Amino acid sequence: MRFRFCKSGFTLIEVVVASVIGMFIMMVAVSTLRTVSAGRERIYDNTAAADELRFAANLIRCDFANLYRDKIDDMKLEGGIGSDYGSAGSSVTFWATSTVSARTAAIEGDLYEIQYLLQESNGKQVLMRRLCPIVGSEEEGELAMGVMTAIAENILAFELRYFDGDEWLTEWTTEDKSIPGMVEVSLAASMEHDPKRLMSKTFFMSFPRLRYTADKVSEVDSDGEDEAFEVGAEGSE
């Protein structure tokens, strides 16, 4: 008996169809990977920006909560649209107490001059915190110095407003020997990988233990309690 062996293979059409299907699967896989990578990058940017804003807001709240309030004549709180140290936005300078030393191996008390302002560094807007110890014999020029620390990067806006009892002001000076009833702080940050996307945070601070002495002071009720400006410090992201 004779056996016949038939050799069979893929036709040209089958090879073309298989190649097209393989390319389609590859394109879908690459697109999925890009989507997952972009989503992960977006989540990272959101988390990083939120952490930066939260850290800055908590530090500002803490410093304002320790505002030096022994005497109105001896306290300092000044804010406005300043150009100190190259700042293009708002800046605020005040005296506060702190148990954290600004310099290592140096004799310091617990009274410091603190300033917040925006500075440009390596093409980025950075929120800076200046901490200068007050020992008691400093001149005005010496108080302009201090230790500068970067608090948050990619900050596009840092704005403060001060409530005097009647209206919100963008500037506050110590000439009136007074303290605002409330301070509003607004921060806006851009994303690291997508500068067009922004995240903002706004919060309020009041001084319930220190009655401000502007002309429009809050009245004290019969129980001796201050009626004005018990505002929480919640922000929006």
Uncertain regions spanning at least 5 consecutive residues: 212-237
Structural class: alpha+beta
For the report, how would you describe the main beta sheet? 5 strands, antiparallel
How many domain units?
1
Biggest sheet, spatial arrangement of strands: 1-2-3-4-5
For the termini, the CA-CA separation is 87 Å
What is the 3D form? elongated
Radius of gyration, CA atoms, in whole angstroms: 30 Å
Please, how many helices? 2
User: Tally of extended strands?
Assistant: 9
Give structural attributes.
disordered C terminus, alpha+beta, 4-stranded antiparallel sheet, single chain, 5-stranded antiparallel sheet, 2 helices, 29% strand
